[in-house]
Amino acid sequence: xxxxxxxxxxxxxxxxxxxxxxxxxxxxxxxxxxxxxxxxxxxxxxxxxxxxxxxxxxxxxxxxxxxxxxxxxxxxxxxxxxxxxxxxxxxxxxxxxxxxxxxxxxxxxxxxxxxxxxxxxxxxxxxxxxxxxxxxxxxxxxxxxxxxxxxxxxxxxxxxxxxxxxxxxxxxxxxxxxxxxxxxxxxxxxxxxxxxxxxxxxxxxxxxxxxxxxxxxxxxxxxxxxxxxxxxxxxxxxxxxxxxxxxxxxxxxxxxxxxxxxxxxxxxxxxxxxxxxxxxxxxxxxxxxxxxx
Length: 293
Fold this sequence. Notes:
Order of helices and strands: HHEEEEEEEEEHEHHHHHHHHHHE
CATH architecture of the largest domain: Sandwich
């Protein structure tokens, strides 16, 4: 759907929003932004109740805009909760985070490409790993005006259009040229994460040290951890489609995991739940964003 049509249908969207308690929508970016933005994710519910969520890595950084009440985010020890800014950028995630919604939820998430932050912000990506930065700290008054426009727009689709225009303006003069990490990321995604760093180096004109440095600076994760993230996301997608838990071991093997016990340990470490608990959750907001029940 084009942005023109999306905005034209705003009244229809508002009607749907009033009736449905939960909305999740994914929108593709403008072709000129495909090297920066993976997709836009719209999440909303109009339930004025406390709801707890868990967020874990999908291998991508992002940008968040709240149109309703910001979420409360807990520290890793779950001893302290702080309110998220109205808009912010987040880096790669290496451990799961628990988040609480205390009112109506309406948020726009700009899911960025794995190596987009450096070209977008001119900041080494490792500095944002497991961190969030208010948008105003990065873009000043321009960010405050953007946040205000989005917070007061008619609906989330129109908000996505506003964010997209902001990003188009920001990247118009910079551009993004394909580099080492682009090539490596493409190979890793094509293999669905069933590849190791040695195999990667066999087809790339770089040393292991060069690859590590580039990934640290541009992706915020080591090549090994990024490969793990891509393989895990592939597994989660297939797990959602699994018709019988009897096929669990076969699925694990098909996704490159040869030891079910090791996978179970990895799964719990990165999500806080077991594969079967994840499979039983039918209210996922995104593949890496789930309500806690």
